[in-house]
Amino acid sequence: MPFERIIATALEIVDAEGAEALTLRALAQRLGSSTATLYRHVDNRADLVGHVVERVFSEIAVDSEALEGADMSRACEHLARSLFDAIARHPNAAPLLIETVPTGPHAMAFREVCLSTLLAHGFPPATARMLAAALGRFVIGFALQLRTDADQQDADKQAGDRLFHVDPAVYPAISRTADEATVPLAEEFALGLDLLLRGMRDFAAAGHDHRG
């Protein structure tokens, strides 16, 4: 059985049913095969997850021309959005990114670009590594909220209703802001990313490293 078909089918399960549905038994059933056959290609579920995550990373579209000559903020914004867009095509796969440290060829290539960008803009190695990790965790944190299954939407609506009807005498700040229109996740992501990049610029301008 082609390895590519195994990983593509595993990602199909995640896309359709969620990360928790990805098991070797479920994958074998979907393929009309056996778990014994799958064990010829992957060691265990963790190994399978690593390959699925690598498949997601293979869809990251980094524009080298957009990075060339760009300042630090624009370059990092492009990288962060490229990662976010790739995960957004497979929102149910987002939880898998916190189950493993991606080390496949595509993941390593993306990490190399991120670190090279930060090093090229004057950050020392230790700080560059921490900032690259912070950007990645920021993106994944937002990506975890992209799932659009009915249960999640219903839970979000119920939470919104509870916030709207709080007692203003007990929660005056919540009450004062509850009737503001819900901001789309994309706008929250853009604001948070802008603030993070501003902080990185200030950090660089002050000449700090991560211990400063």
Which helices and strands, and how do they pair?
Layout: H1 3-17, H2 24-31, H3 35-38, H4 45-57, H5 64-67, H6 72-88, H7 105-120, H8 125-143, H9 150-164, H10 172-178, H11 185-205
Helix pairs in contact: 1-2, 1-4, 4-7, 6-8, 6-11, 7-8, 8-11
GO biological process, one term: negative regulation of DNA-templated transcription
Keywords: DNA-binding, Repressor, Transcription, Transcription regulation
DNA-binding region: 23-42
Query: Superfamily at the CATH H level of the largest domain?
Result: Tetracycline Repressor, domain 2
Low-confidence stretches: none
Query: Strand share of the residues?
Result: under 5%
Mean pLDDT: 90
- Specify the structural class: mainly alpha
Order of helices and strands: HHHHHHHHHHH
Overall spatial form? flat
CATH class of the largest domain: Mainly Alpha
Oligomeric state of the chains in view = single chain
- Domain count: the total is 2
CATH topology of the largest domain: Tetracycline Repressor, domain 2
The CA-CA distance between the termini, in Å, is: 54 Å
What is the alpha-carbon Rg in Å? 21 Å
E-strand count:
0
The percentage helix is 55-70%
CATH architectural type of the largest domain: Orthogonal Bundle
**Largest beta-sheet details:** none
What would you note in describing this structure?
With 212 residues, this protein is mainly α. The protein has two domains: 3-56, Orthogonal Bundle (Arc Repressor Mutant, subunit A); 59-148 and 182-205, Tetracycline Repressor, domain 2 (Orthogonal Bundle). The protein contains eleven helices and no strands. The protein has helices spanning 3-17, 24-31, 35-38, 45-57, 64-67, 72-88, 105-120, 125-143, 150-164, 172-178, 185-205. The longest helix has 21 residues, at 185-205. The chain starts with a helix and ends in a 7-residue tail after the last helix. InterPro entries: Homeodomain-like_sf, HTH-type_TetR-like_transc_reg, HTH_TetR, Repressor_TetR_C, Tet_transcr_reg_TetR, Tet_transcr_reg_TetR-rel_C_sf. One of its GO terms (molecular function) is transcription cis-regulatory region binding.
